Amino acid sequence: MTPLLTVISWSPSYWILEAFTAVWCFVMGSVIGSFLNVVIYRMPLGLNISKPKSRCPVCENPIRTRDNLPILGWLLLRGKCRDCQTPISPRYPIVEALVGTFFLLLYLSIVHSGGALLPFRIPNRFSGGYQILEGRTWDLIALGIYYCYLFVVVLASTYIQFDRELIPRRLLLWCLGIGVLAGCFLPELHPLPARVPVQPAPSSTELLLSELQYYGTLHFNFEPGSLLTVCWGLVYGAIVGILFCWPSLFQTADQRSLFPPRTSWLPLLIGVYLGWQQVVMVGFLSALILALAHLICRNRSSFCDRLPASAFLSGVLTLQLLGGGYLTILPSQTGYLTYLLVTGGQLVTIPILTGLSEAAHRKRETANSTQDQIPLDETSTLTS
């Protein structure tokens, strides 16, 4: 760090800037989380998400502006309607806090770090909030917004499926369309290209030239490489979606599956936004954690029975967005042949893990339904 930057980093104004930026990211995320609650409730029912204003479902009185503040409004009301004292679900502030925390962490991991946690991309030589004032992070800011939009759509889809509703097709199509168009015309949104060369670590001269010529700027133009990255992400997203959700093809209408309709859209969106390498990793880790959760709880009912598979996808996606540089395997790290074997092994393992998860889930469902059909006197006889 240069002497000038050392002085700046120790000045009070620098820390005020850092604190203000962090608080602003959390507040903006919580505001978007508040709007996301409206989307989760209204969009599956075909209601307008902007009109009318939010109101209590019991007394139907509009919620006052001061009571509609994210997180604070629920806390000040002590979780009850001001007019009729009907309890307000704690899920509303939880969603707001989740989105706000994610926005803050994503700012720290992408913008504040200078891209240090991104896969393949050469990080900036400097980090910190002062980069924003110097115009060094326009590409990282755009990438953060791009990732935030993907996150809120996947999170909303997860909550909609948790409520046993169907994910609206327009929510998915809007996300897909924006991902394809923005990804094709803004190359900086895909720091991990479809074809990753096997090359040694860049020299200090290459790092400096790369930062001077590229970082901090946005290039709005169409590049064949960007189109190739989006197309490969689309193809592999569809493959991962089919492999991840294949048990839903054999479910009957009266069975509650871990893979509700349109779950396979979510890996498709992840592939478009993150590229084919990362969607394979997200699909594999989601299937692995899903299988472990259901195998651990295979002999008893648990909260994970209520969770759709999209909850595990959204959880692993969060980790991938925040620390993709540590979770993504590249040919330069393993060698090209080993890289292909590992990637192929992940794709083969995904349907096996999800099949085990669905089998364990159906076994518990069958046991619970059988137990419910046994009369009380027979149950006491069997357990005595």
Automatic annotation (TrEMBL):
<feature type="region of interest" description="Disordered">
    <location>
        <begin position="364"/>
        <end position="384"/>
    </location>
</feature>
<feature type="compositionally biased region" description="Polar residues">
    <location>
        <begin position="367"/>
        <end position="384"/>
    </location>
</feature>
<feature type="transmembrane region" description="Helical">
    <location>
        <begin position="280"/>
        <end position="297"/>
    </location>
</feature>
<feature type="transmembrane region" description="Helical">
    <location>
        <begin position="20"/>
        <end position="41"/>
    </location>
</feature>
<dbReference type="Pfam" id="PF06750">
    <property type="entry name" value="A24_N_bact"/>
</dbReference>
<protein>
    <submittedName>
        <fullName>Leader peptidase PppA</fullName>
    </submittedName>
</protein>
<keyword id="KW-0812">Transmembrane</keyword>
<dbReference type="InterPro" id="IPR010627">
    <property type="entry name" value="Prepilin_pept_A24_N"/>
</dbReference>
<dbReference type="GO" id="GO:0004190">
    <property type="term" value="F:aspartic-type endopeptidase activity"/>
</dbReference>
<feature type="transmembrane region" description="Helical">
    <location>
        <begin position="336"/>
        <end position="356"/>
    </location>
</feature>
<feature type="transmembrane region" description="Helical">
    <location>
        <begin position="97"/>
        <end position="120"/>
    </location>
</feature>
<feature type="transmembrane region" description="Helical">
    <location>
        <begin position="227"/>
        <end position="246"/>
    </location>
</feature>
<dbReference type="GO" id="GO:0006465">
    <property type="term" value="P:signal peptide processing"/>
</dbReference>
<dbReference type="GO" id="GO:0005886">
    <property type="term" value="C:plasma membrane"/>
</dbReference>
<feature type="transmembrane region" description="Helical">
    <location>
        <begin position="140"/>
        <end position="159"/>
    </location>
</feature>
<dbReference type="InterPro" id="IPR050882">
    <property type="entry name" value="Prepilin_peptidase/N-MTase"/>
</dbReference>
<feature type="transmembrane region" description="Helical">
    <location>
        <begin position="309"/>
        <end position="330"/>
    </location>
</feature>
<feature type="domain" description="Prepilin peptidase A24 N-terminal">
    <location>
        <begin position="27"/>
        <end position="109"/>
    </location>
</feature>
<keyword id="KW-0472">Membrane</keyword>
<keyword id="KW-1133">Transmembrane helix</keyword>
